[in-house]
Automatic annotation (TrEMBL):
GO biological process, one term: siderophore transmembrane transport
Membrane disposition: Multi-pass membrane protein
Single GO term (MF): siderophore uptake transmembrane transporter activity
Protein name: TonB-dependent receptor
Ranges where the TonB-dependent receptor-like beta-barrel domain occurs: 329-774
Highest taxon listed in the record's lineage: Bacteria
Similarity section: Belongs to the TonB-dependent receptor family.
Any coiled-coil regions, as ranges: none
PANTHER family, sorted: HEMOGLOBIN AND HEMOGLOBIN-HAPTOGLOBIN-BINDING PROTEIN 1-RELATED (PTHR30069:SF29), TONB-DEPENDENT OUTER MEMBRANE RECEPTOR (PTHR30069)
A cellular component annotation (GO) from this entry: cell outer membrane
Keyword annotations: Cell outer membrane, Membrane, Receptor, Signal, TonB box, Transmembrane, Transmembrane beta strand, Transport
Amino acid sequence: MKKIFILWFLLGFMGISYGQTITIKEQETNNPIELVTLSSATSKVYATTNSKGQADISTFKDVEKIEIRSLGYKTIIKSYAELEAEGFVITLETSNLNLDEVVISGSRWRQSSDDIPSKIISISAKEVALQNPQTAADLLSVSGKVFVQKSQQGGGSPMIRGFATNRLLYSVDGVRMNTAIFRSGNLQNVINLDPFAIENTEVLFGPGSVIYGSDAIGGVMSFQTLTPQLSLTDDAFISGKANVRYSSANNEKTGHFDVNLGFKKWAFVTSITSWDYDNLRQGSHGPDDYIKDYYVERQDSTDVIISQKDKLLQIPSAYSQINIMQKIRFQPNENWDFQYGFHFSETSPYGRYDRHNRVRNGTARYAEWDYGPQIWMMNNLSLNYNAGNSIFDQMSLRLAHQWFEESRIDRAFNKTERNTQSEEVGAYSANLDFIKTIGEKNTFFYGVEYVLNDVNSEGELTDISTGLSEIGPARYPQSKWQSMAVYVTDEFKVSNQFTLSAGARYNHILLDAEFDTTFYPFPFTEASLSNGALTGSIGGVYRPNDSWVISANLGTAFRSPNVDDLGKVFDSEPGSVVVPNPDLKPEYAYNADLGIAKVFGDVVKVDITGYYTHLKDALVRRDFKLNGLDSIVYQGELSQVQAIQNAAIAKVYGVQAGVEVKLPKGFGFSTDVNFQKGEEELDNGETSPSRHAAPFFGVSRLNYKANKLQMEVNLAYQGKRDFEDLPEEEKEKTEFYALDENGNAFAPSWYTLNFKALYKLTDTFDVSGGIENLTDQRYRPYSSGISGAGRNFILSLTAHF
């Protein structure tokens, strides 16, 4: 008896239980569906199916309303008793016309989009498998709702609703990726993420500061990486995939491997990806202004202009990258779930192609202008606790450490001095989030957050003829940036048709910087900022019936000055230099948006969202004086002094619209279009178009799916932007744009016609690929310094196990 009692005690302590497994399959093919979400609004429990379409739903016992959702399938609602009566085997019907799905970006918790007034879209791993994006930046553009700018092949800077760079926020597994040196110029940090290792991507449009704090003005991009899957039986659960891919436009050679090893309580995921890209070939039909048919090479202590044999190659644009991810999960019982994730990404050095296009005195301005290796590492520990008490129903603690390294290397043509500026950022964060349901109508999401960024910046000057080096000017001061916040959101079910949400956040940010005046005579050696910001939102979702959704939202957002705003020194354009300005305060955004979605007869879905954002005290680059001087000598050139200042009011408004049509015989058609217009106040009181408000753009798709085959023909396009409609700061960047009959810069309209296909050869092997830019157009997305790929053949082979 004593032995039996001890065994019972140990089993109870270890949380060993024999749960109930459900299997979910696709109705048409009977194949298992991965990442189906099962949730209960009343009991706040959820489960997600593994690669075999299975999930443990023992925590749902006696639940009357279980919502079963997956992107691309019709949502069904059943009770536990009904699932039991059906033998715990469910089939889902294919449909792209859903008006609701499960999302996490709105509150960091799993929610139905029924209850969120903000516009949120998801990009699934299945869509990524069909489209074969080369980078995470390309992955975002798959949606047709995010515009991506590039200055080099190794990059990609998203633009959302007229905002970009440090006015957008990146979140990886719930952890803020933005650092104190995220700049107002184009950012490449999104390429640190591995599309093969991303389980789901969500984009929240509009302000997200209540949950995410500073920077979330235009939107939030939330990336959820592969979650370790536990075994639902006594046997180990092993799954994974291996992939090889080739693309012709840049001679891409990519290899990926990931494996999941799951036991009852422990699970492990390992992922490794390697990319290698040659110089990118642009198309043969388009503006000749985009062609640079030479590159610079060092020969016998002299920089030499080399004429290209293939003038369509964009040299230098080649680069390579490696990503490694290791995640560990421990679930001792149904209440606790521990997860640890390690992420590492490193690129090779790569040329910033737009800078290599710059000319001075009739020849190349630079012999070198490269980014050094871009390194990102993250350690992320999350603890999730599910058990109701008087304070919370669920609790989540996220502790993260990130490490960022980046550098810039430049050398003027036929000069021997190479300038290298290197930055390192240690980023530490802690998030404690809670969810509590009170009664049947109120659900509270609340939490606290602390973030610390430690910025170290160095400069080095090297004489390449002698190899001797000395300390050079750093780009940033040595700095510490801290953010402390408390926030709460209440989701109130007014009725079964109407949900009201309101939230508020108070954020306090501290910045301390120490300046080195060795190279520049700043009138200060230290600077500090202490800013408080209160933001809020209120909105509602009204569903008169299952085919209508009307949502409206009012919200504010802020961006506190960071180290890049306050302290950097760099050349923004030929003849200008940006210097530090310690007298800065936060900028605030005030936003309103209204969305309407309607499904007509389960055949047509129409989705339209209109928005307006007003930005006050905008941090912009303006002419400045340093020690009373409006010009100083920078890198051997007399340059106009500029600085970031709270000097403008800006506004952005626009419409996002989409149409989906379910056609017979497995066919479907969809179109997503985006119109936005932005204005920014100038020094003289006049206005200029906002730089990050992209021209009209969109994508139209014709799809076909039947059994093992999936195909798509799509047309991606962008409207024209004439010289007079360009932002003032863009008009002189002739290396970016085509030239009109008057020799003025403008952004031509363009389109690409693309074909994608995926065929399931066996249960193990898939082959996918296609042809991008079938008509071989030479095009350049607005504000980009490098052209898109010409005709590009893609072939990818994937093995699932």
